[in-house]
Amino acid sequence: MRFLLRRLAAAVAMLCAGALLVPVQASAAEAACRDLDIPVSLVAMPLLGLKDQTMYGRLCVPPGGSHTLQVLVPGGTYNSAYYDPPRLPETRSFRKAANNAGYATLAVDRVGSGRSSKPLSGLLTASAQANAVHHAIQSMRTGTLGARFDKIVLVGHSLGSATTLIEAATFHDVDGVVITGFTHRIAPLTVVPTVAALSPAALDERMSKVVGLDPGYLTTMTGTRYTAFHNPGLFDQQVVDVDEATKDLIAPGEMVDAVLIGLVLPYSRGINVPVLVAMGDKDTVFCGPVASDCSGAESLRQGEAGYYSPEARLRTFVVPGYGHSINFAPNAPLLHDAVTGWMNEMVGR
After folding, report:
1. Distance of alpha carbon 228 from alpha carbon 118, whole angstroms
2. Strand, coil or helix: what is 38?
């Protein structure tokens, strides 16, 4: 009875959020996970085919396997832990929700962050990251690292969504795209705390110890994670502590062309596969009176539809009551169920 009541409550909350999708039930079976070091390059066609960088990814496959893989790309100052935060309730794990629903996942660290290689920060742009993600997708398509998938869906968050948008519109090598924490209009009145939180990584006690960093790498100043990424959502000290403990790096160039290509140019219209856009209704980076209207799924869809082609068959979803990093929201299962429902309808296992 408790299970039924909990699922009913989730469904009601989704309706209140203005969602266009129906939540689905997930399996509790555990996935088999392994770490991968994927050879990639920051250019689309590396000289002589040589891959000069390494992208870390954690591949998790549900019991019985899956023909469909979700490649999860984190945002700036985040790494793959965004999709499976340690020491937090399982309800905050996007990765586990996808695996429980029967989909394989590959959560990656962007080049220049986490366990991926650390090139000169000046080489890193959102377009360069898109090239690297493209090479990772090729590896998953061909099975060169031991696992091969027939269908691949790119899932991005924030800066990772800009990378996802560029990759999908450039290479046309995926079967679906999920954009979270990213729209085509920045909120100029409320984005300031997020930008102001950035500081040279060399000044951060933990990040300054990362080997191979040049002065161009940035991270967030200690104590700014809630204001930058979660405000005005419910303050949860455990969530903030985990976010601070797992924070990572970003290069200035990633933000420059993410704005130019992702926001200024109509690049997203080159995506010719189904797209889902999911936002927190109180996202202070992209939502607000002179930015995107994230108050409900339909208003979000109307604001974003012009930036996508008819082939995208754009769907939208809004997580109520939270800011930018919606996978940390107390009601994150609403997001997970929405993505799974969309996957089941648009892509399939």
Report:
1. 25
2. strand
Q: How far apart are alpha carbons 158 and 180 in whole angstroms?
A: 6
Say how far apart CA 215 and CA 63 lie, in whole Å: 44
> What is the model's pTM?
0.90
Can the peptide bond before residue 232 be classed as cis, meaning omega within 30 degrees of 0? yes
Query: Which among 243, 241, 237 is positioned nearest to 219, based on CA atoms?
Result: 243
Joined tokens for residue 3: 């299970």
Q: Are 219 and 205 in contact (CB under 8 A)?
A: no
CA pair distance 310, 282, nearest whole angstrom: 28
In this structure, is the dihedral angle defined by the CA atoms of residues 82, 335, 176 and 166, taken in order, positive or negative? Answer: negative
What gap in Å lies between CA 141 and CA 136, rounded to an integer?
9
Residue type (1 letter), 17: A
At 326, is the pLDDT very low, low, confident or very high (cuts 50, 70, 90)? very high
191: nearest Cα among 323, 343, 36: 323
Please report which confidence band the pLDDT of residue 275 belongs to, taking 50, 70 and 90 as the band edges. very high
> Quick one: DSSP state of residue 316?
E
Start-end of H helices in the chain: 2-16, 94-100, 126-142, 159-171, 192-196, 225, 237-245, 252-259, 297-304, 332-346
Residue 30 corresponds to which tokens in the numbers above?
A: 């555990």
Report percent pLDDT > 70 for the chain: 91
The DSSP secondary structure of 123-156, one letter per residue, reads G--HHHHHHHHHHHHHHHHHTTTS---SEEEEEE
Rounded to an integer, what distance in angstroms lies between the CA atom of residue 70 and that of residue 155? 7
pLDDT at 103 over 80: yes
Side-by-side strand order, sheet with 275-280: 32-40, 53-61, 104-108, 68-73, 151-157, 176-180, 275-280, 315-319
pLDDT number for residue 25: 39
Check: CB of residue 134 under 8 Å from CB of residue 59: no
Fill in the amino acid letter for 164.
T
Please list the helix, strand and coil fractions of the chain in percent, rounded to the nearest 5, in that order: 40, 15, 40
